[in-house]
Amino acid sequence: MFEEEDRETGFALFLVIALAITVSIFTMGIAAGTAISQSGAKATAAKGPIVTRLYFELGKADVPADASAALAPHVKGAKEGRRIAVSGFHDASGDAAANEELAKQRAFAVRDLLVAAGAPVERIELRKPALTTGDGDPREARRVEVTLQ
Questions:
Q1: Do residues 76 and 136 share a domain?
Q2: How does DSSP assign 50-118, residue by residue?
Q3: Fewer CB near the last or first residue (10 Å), C or N of the chain?
Q4: What does pTM read for this prediction?
Q5: The domain containing residue 56 runs over which residues?
Q6: What's the rounded Cα separation, in Å, for the pair 38 and 69?
Q7: Are 67 and 54 in contact (CB under 8 A)?
Q8: Does 34 score more than 70 pLDDT?
Q9: 36 vs 44, 54, 77, 78, 130, CA distance in Å?
């Protein structure tokens, strides 16, 4: 079998390799520009898509207070020629038509905020409201996703 000294050397070598791999992965993440936006959405810098989720109060289409800061990268990207997709979401509880209308109102409110912040309106695409299914976080049905493409 192995001598005690061989075991210690092997363990030390294992630790050095594990540390090197961890540092490499961390460095690649920074180089790729991976960040977390204020709204909690994972966003990728550079030319990749940036997705921000804005959560609304139940039954309301008032844009959240922190939306302007969260959408700043989208406005900047639109000014640089990139496109923005705005998607409202709703669930199946209650009146389907009313839920879809509220999702539209929320998407329009976000679009208006983007335009007021300087994003060219011709670079913004409003998508048809989408139904959210599943038993996850109930806020998911009260969200608008904004994607800088």
A1: yes
A2: EEEEEE--TT--PPPTTHHHHHHHHHHHHHTT--EEEEEEE-SSS-HHHHHHHHHHHHHHHHHHHHHTT
A3: N
A4: 0.66
A5: 36-148
A6: 8
A7: yes
A8: no
A9: 8, 14, 17, 20, 24
Angle between helices 96-116 and 67-79 (to 10 degrees): 60
- Beta-bridged to residue 50, according to DSSP, are 43, 148
Q: Are strands 50-55 and 84-90 parallel, antiparallel or unpaired?
A: unpaired
67: CATH: 3.30.1330.60
Instruction: Report in angstroms the alpha-carbon separations of 48 from 22, 81, 140, 149.
Output: 24, 14, 23, 7
Length of the chain: 149
The tally of domains found in the chain comes to 2
* 96-143 pLDDT tens trace: 899 899 999 999 999 999 999 999 999 999 998 888 875 677 778 889
Beta bridge partners of residue 44, listed in sequence order: 34
